[in-house]
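> run fold ATP-binding protein
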Amino acid sequence: MRRYVLTGTPGAGKTSILRCLAELGYGVVEEAATAVIARAQAQGEDEPWTRASFIDEIVTLQRQRQLEAATTGSVQVFDRSPVCTLALATYLGRPVSRMLAAELERITSEGIYERQVLFVRNLGFCEPTTARRISFEESLVFERIHEQSYRAFGYELIDIPAGDLEHRLAAVSSVISLPAA
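> ok
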């Protein structure tokens, strides 16, 4: 099983790439943070990222989704990973919780994800959404924190440059379709 992480700045186009990969038959796993935010907002909570349990809720959903996907397909692509959750905690000025630390240890010791991480570069703008309330300038700070976080864990960042969806999809496919080393 080869599990790749697709990451990058908010609004970079990760979800569009992920949808195309699903159409091509790859196993894909959606981003957990967006699901946590959407669920809370549907229940009337406007800014769930302000509550103390937010990071652990993301970690819980990421772990659950990773374990549930463990038996599907030979190649899977995950929209973010617990390393992204670490970057989010850093960005929000939150301490690393015991749950996040344990999950980072688990994915590292078990080699859950491929060492090559698909880093989708920003498009030069960041459109706000209900879940994404970040300016373009803030997204660039967040992008740098993601890079630093992945490098600190020894991952190799494979740049997926800004461009049209077809070229980005081709760049991702060229990495994930290669035989395992």
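The mean pLDDT is 91.
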